[in-house]
Specification:
The chain is mainly beta. Helix content is 4%, strand content 42%. Strands 2-3-62-68-64-65 form a six-stranded mixed sheet, with no helix packed on it.
Length: 944
């Protein structure tokens, strides 16, 4: 009796299950260059068009043997090189040699200085991109494509020949996650680079550092004025703020963090104004002219009302008194501004319109400083905030000055900073002087006031000395800040200026080492004579040493016989000491700064498990330490962050967490058994996030993790094994929202022929996997969907850039200009309900929703253990349509009937394959039907 077997479902690839009927309905064992975007509909993938290459063209050549250190090069076509051009040669056995300078150039030949015997097969001119360069990452913004190459070039598709100045690697260049991460906020592209967070404001602008620095402490002096605002003996506080607008104008208006407070005391004997000297050398300069400030910069000055003597603090109510634009002006290292604003303008209840500083206690508060973003390995936007993952701050060190002058005892080990003492910061010495005008590398040790005043003024003088030295010496990359205002003991913050200079530094402290001689003991007392004034006072503890013999001992300076160059100690020995220095000098500081041994070093607060987040809609304002979350186990890295609608996934080395709710945010562990295998595979399609984990592809929702690749696990496992771990870690994923597709791109495993580059594509609506194939020489290295055109862009290993055709026409289905797309669909083995019985399949009916092609082949294969395969069987197309025909849901279903050749009709197992290889052909396959009947094994009859 005849039967009909109909398959009208498309389950996609099912390669890891029983294939003798258990997976028969719609299961595929091969589905190449097709997609299942909609349930039970198989379509060919769209084609990709080559839009150009980032490499200069190669020219075939012949290179003669060396002669006198030179070689003759002959090209097959005119090369166009000129004398002095730089070229590279591709070697016969692979790789490149060069660079070489073109000498004696003619139309089809030239010479180079080369004494090697290398066999070269092609030559190319050195352009912006080195030979072998290829795209590593793609980013979209401002209706354009920005790409990053593996050699660190950053450029945009519309201006391939002129990349942005410098090289730009990912924040973890050289690590497994070496693709640059980015996000678009307020019309700007924010990138996590090896130089810190950088911003691209437009396709034609150069990248700039994100955020603005803390202004180094300005110097403020009272200036006599007949109508000055500051009364004699009164004081007031100042803070400085840098600001900027970007190319989008006042729409993107930024204020940086304020400087630490600087208090000025009027000691002129009359009314005075305040003269501020503000450092501007820390501000960005124009990317096209380093002698100009970057456009849009300005400086603001904020001031408190003045207070009279006896009032302990100037308070925290800072109001704006001045603003000066800097953009476009000639670059200077400092600017001087005299503030003469009357107090009435900023007094409470005044009629003035002075603006308060945003960090005032009655505004956002002192913790909500607009600190620039930290160095980050990943960046994303969620809940209108920009999030930064696995963060590092600038190397910094805070020290407190505890005393100036004064003595100490051996018991308590306390002494004060004095003239002649030296603070060594990152190898640069800053020497204290007792009087006179400090030269570069020196600072005045103030001793004319109270103990607290001496400490505070001396600390301020040291801060100024460090900043003055930094202005004159660009290689010295540390800025100094007095962070505690009028508080005693004062805290000095030393910090690196930028992330490219962000290396550890140390601080040490030395009291003067003096040559000396020691007299004979008399009554247990000895006199020590120094070559220069020693500056010791009674009670000082000094260390006497015999250089070369390592004899060192501490003694207390006695009151008797104390002169500028002599002092006495209690000592009855006859040891001849020849050097002396004041001991316990390090105790003038907290932490103690050692003279020898382990130096006090900076720290960059590297926090691999930390998330920092910006203020709302202010991506370049990240209050340090306050706007942060430490996720999971300290020391375990955050590998990737991925926003969802109501949560943000945080992939860590020890598991997956979610951040949820509003500020203050909550953190919960989602799963600690799934380990992310390739960080660049994390991709969101709708409310689902896909990622390659240690046992395959998983789909993450806001409440669960579901495996999706079980059906193709046998094809994935070789890549997830130990040999493929390094290669698989370089895989990446692409989310195509409108098509509801997730594609997983896995590079080839070197030396494993069975593991070539592989692309798996998952259709969410159909819950089905397929594959895509491309020529090996054009293996795709990165890709992303353009949110503006909804087209997929991809970069290839040969430096070419490919754009998916997306016109919804039949002409979409061709690679480049004319290369057909070979599509192959093979259903799982069919046994028609009984694998043991022999069947006769007489005809096939292919059911299409649409079928717009000219030619095609339908291949029937019967298990070879039963009857040999018949080979391909041609089918007749139903219609031929024009190439510009739109593809739409209104097309009528079509059916092709094909008779199975007699020598291929009989068998126990049947495998059916549909394949096409035609340019600009579109079809949508619903399924197929097979007319068959059971036959007798004994008679071996084949019905005709």
């Amino acid at each position: 009796m005849a039967g009909i077997s109909t398959v009208l479902s498309a389950r996609g690839l099912v390669t890891s299950a029983n294939n003798l009927g258990a997976t028969e309905q719609g299961a595929l064992v091969e589905a190449d260059n097709v997609v299942i975007r909609f349930a039970d509909i198989i379509e060919p993938r769209r084609g990709q068009q080559n839009t150009g290459s980032i490499q200069t063209a190669q020219i075939s050549c012949f290179v003669g043997p060396p002669s006198g250190g030179f070689r003759f090069v002959q090209t097959t076509t005119p090369h166009g090189f000129s004398n002095g051009d730089i070229v590279f040669f591709e070697r016969f056995l692979g790789g490149f040699s060069g660079p070489f300078t073109v000498l004696s150039s003619h139309s089809l030949d030239f010479t180079i200085a080369d004494a090697s015997t290398n066999a070269y097969i092609a030559v190319q001119k050195q352009g912006i991109y080195a030979p072998g360069d290829y795209l590593r990452q793609m980013m979209f913004f401002d209706s354009g494509l920005v790409f990053n190459t593996h050699n660190g070039k950053l450029a945009n598709l519309g201006n391939v020949g002129a990349p942005y100045t410098g090289t730009w690697f990912s924040a973890d260049y050289g690590a497994e996650d070496s693709r640059m991460k980015s996000t678009v906020v307020r019309q700007n592209l924010h990138m996590a680079t090896n130089k810190g967070m950088y911003v691209l404001e437009s396709l034609t602008s150069q990248p700039r550092a994100s955020g603005l620095p803390v202004p180094p402490d300005p110097t403020v002096q009272p200036v006599t004025a007949s109508a000055g605002f500051l009364a004699d003996t009164n004081r007031c506080g100042f803070k400085i703020v840098y600001g900027r607008t970007d190319i989008h104008g006042t729409k993107n208006y930024y204020l940086g963090p304020p400087s630490y407070p600087v208090v000025v005391l009027n000691t002129t004997g009359g009314l005075a104004n305040a003269r501020l000297t503000i450092r501007t050398d820390v501000l960005p300069t124009s990317t096209t002219d380093p002698t100009k400030f970057a456009d849009g910069l300005f400086v603001q000055i904020y001031r408190t009302v003045q207070v009279a003597p006896g009032i302990p603090s100037v308070g925290d109510n800072y109001l704006q008194v001045f603003e000066q634009p800097l953009g476009g002006a000639d670059f200077v290292s400092t600017i001087s501004i005299t503030d003469s604003t009357p107090d009435a303008f900023i007094e409470v209840g005044s009629t003035g319109d002075a603006l308060p500083l945003y960090t005032n206690s009655d505004s956002e508060g002192p913790t909500q400083r607009n600190d620039p973003p930290p160095y980050s390995r990943d960046v994303a936007t969620w809940q209108s905030r920009t999030w930064y993952a696995q963060t590092t701050n600038l190397h910094s060190l805070s020290i407190k000055l505890l005393g100036v002058g004064g003595g100490g005892t051996e018991a308590d080990g306390v002494t004060g900073l004095r003239a002649g003492d030296v603070v060594i910061i990152d190898g640069v010495s800053f020497t204290g002087i007792g009087s006179g005008f400090p030269l570069p590398g020196s600072f005045l040790v103030y001793t004319s006031g109270t103990s607290a005043e001496n400490i505070l003024v001396t600390a301020r003088n040291l801060v100024n000395a460090v900043n003055i030295y930094a202005i004159a010496n660009p290689s010295f990359t540390i800025n100094a800040f007095l962070t505690t205002g009028e508080a005693v003991p004062p805290t000095i913050l030393l910090e690196r200026d930028t992330y490219p200079n962000n290396t550890v530094f140390s601080v040490t402290f030395k009291t003067p080492l003096l040559d000396c001689t020691t007299g004979a003991a008399s009554g247990g007392v000895r006199t020590v004579t120094t070559a220069t004034d020693h500056g010791y006072i009674e009670g000082d503890v000094v260390t006497l040493d015999r250089a070369g013999f390592r004899i060192a001992k501490n003694f207390t300076v006695l009151a008797t016989g104390l002169t500028a160059t002599q002092f006495r100690i209690t000592d009855s020995t006859a040891i001849a000491y020849n050097t002396v220095y004041r001991a316990y000098g390090e105790t003038a500081w907290n932490p103690a700064l050692p003279r020898t041994g382990t130096a006090v070093s900076s720290n960059n607060d590297d926090a691999p498990n930390r998330l920092c987040f910006s203020k709302i809609q202010e991506p370049e304002s990240v209050p340090r330490y306050v706007n942060s979350l430490d996720i999971g186990t300290p020391g375990k890295k955050i590998l990737r962050i991925q926003p969802m609608r109501d949560q943000m996934l945080v992939f860590k080395e020890e598991g997956t967490y979610v951040v949820y709710a509003d500020e203050p945010y909550s953190v919960a562990l989602l799963d600690n058994t799934v380990q992310l295998q390739a960080i660049d595979t994390v991709s969101a399609v709708g409310s689902t996030v896909f990622a390659l984990v240690d046992d395959g592809v998983a789909a993450f929702t806001e409440s669960s993790i579901q495996p999706t690749s079980v059906v193709i696990q046998n094809q994935l496992m070789p890549y997830l094994g130990s040999l493929g771990r390094d290669s698989t870690a370089d895989a990446y994923g692409i989310a195509h929202e409108s098509d509801q597709l997730f594609s997983l791109w896995i590079p080839a495993i070197p030396g494993q022929a069975s593991c070539p580059a592989k692309t798996f594509v998952y259709g969410l609506r159909g819950n089905a996997w397929t594959t895509w194939s491309f020529p090996t020489a054009q293996d795709r290295t990165c890709g992303r969907v353009d949110p503006f055109s909804d087209s997929l862009y991809m970069g290839a290993i040969d430096g070419s850039i490919w754009r998916e055709r997306h016109s919804s026409r039949r002409s979409d289905y061709v690679d480049d200009t004319s290369t057909p797309i070979q599509t192959t669909v093979t259903w799982a083995t069919h046994v028609f309900g009984q694998p043991a019985a022999t069947k006769q399949a007489r005809e096939m009916h292919m059911h299409f929703k649409q079928a717009d092609f000219n030619t095609g082949t339908l291949t029937f294969k019967v298990d070879k253990n039963t009857i040999p395969s018949s080979g391909p069987t041609p089918i007749t197309p139903g219609s031929v349509y024009s190439v510009d025909k739109f593809i739409g849901p209104w097309e009528q279903p079509q059916q092709f009937r094909v008779l199975v050749p007699q020598d291929a009709q009989r068998g126990a197992y049947f495998t059916f394959t549909w394949s096409t290889n035609e340019a600009k052909a579109y079809w949508a396959l619903n399924g197929f039907s097979t007319i068959y009947e059971n036959t007798s094994e004994r008679t071996n009859t084949v019905r005709t």
